[in-house]
Description:
Elements: H1 5-13, H2 17-25, H3 29-65, H4 82-92, H5 103-119, H6 138-146, H7 148-159, H8 163-194, H9 199-204, H10 210-213, H11 215-228, H12 240-243, H13 253-278, H14 299-324, H15 330-358, H16 365-397, H17 404-424
Helix pairs in contact: 1-2, 3-4, 3-14, 4-13, 5-7, 5-13, 7-8, 8-11, 8-15, 11-13, 13-14, 15-16
Amino acid sequence: xxxxxxxxxxxxxxxxxxxxxxxxxxxxxxxxxxxxxxxxxxxxxxxxxxxxxxxxxxxxxxxxxxxxxxxxxxxxxxxxxxxxxxxxxxxxxxxxxxxxxxxxxxxxxxxxxxxxxxxxxxxxxxxxxxxxxxxxxxxxxxxxxxxxxxxxxxxxxxxxxxxxxxxxxxxxxxxxxxxxxxxxxxxxxxxxxxxxxxxxxxxxxxxxxxxxxxxxxxxxxxxxxxxxxxxxxxxxxxxxxxxxxxxxxxxxxxxxxxxxxxxxxxxxxxxxxxxxxxxxxxxxxxxxxxxxxxxxxxxxxxxxxxxxxxxxxxxxxxxxxxxxxxxxxxxxxxxxxxxxxxxxxxxxxxxxxxxxxxxxxxxxxxxxxxxxxxxxxxxxxxxxxxxxxxxxxxxxxxxxxxxxxxxxxxxxxxxxxxxxxxxxx
Length: 425
């Protein structure tokens, strides 16, 4: 097969360049190796370079939320090159290792963190047929690799020979391990509905996005992902006012930059994973299969655009929360997880599994979705009622009014009576 520019252009538009090059180069053993290396280089480069834009975007959006201007000095009025200047500053800083540090653990931690943040992108379906590797245990692979970051943070805190770093590492382990439980339980719901752990199979099974079928699972996964990425209001891992940046307090220069890089790459991955598992990924009313003209399959390209729009929409919510909510205490975080999220997740998985088994096979997708959505609404209402009863009990124990609405009403009457008496006097 000889090179044809038009066919190459078609493969470029339909995102099937790798298949075209395999046909062009033949069945030589080195072809698959070269194509795999190219795929790894392209995805890794994208993940590393997009962070420069994400940091600038986050600083500008949070500045606007807090009625500030944000970066506006380097790179014109919008400060487009501010992050580039920050990266150059980190690269030329002196490399320092603290006295008494465990050098192996200290130096290994930032590399492990970045590697774990990059490897999980292998199972992300960007568009139809555009994925690193379609594992039939894709979701399990994500959960296994993401747990490596816990070890990396513990190595960083232990190896730094600093009490604040060690305390931050202990906090990290407590928080990340705790919130992995509801995250895994929430992910069992789309796995049960799609009957597969493959990310491609989960996307293909979403005739109706799982956000509408199982909104409680999406809610629990999103909250857990906030804690897993150390985002506000769960940013206790590096609480500056308490433990002066936590586990990476002794890191400087590019070693600190690698922790920073891993945080943004992980947050973007969580956004893309949420879009894949609960928003239908690259699917949008069949546009991802569109073919026009003489075999121009632009559906794949449209699917890529759709996926990026969904991913960045979810990422904007992460920024929005970071710019508006305060940090909560460590005991409140753990109480919220073990006393609220974990029981709710267990109940949700149990109800979803039993209901999905009991539904007749003759039900179509819309009927099944309606049944699961109704079950989610009932669970949510029961949860709210339990929380209200708990709040009334706590107020009664504290000696306050058990019903805040009645108390507010009586307060208004008292104010009115006082005003009338003053007027009559």
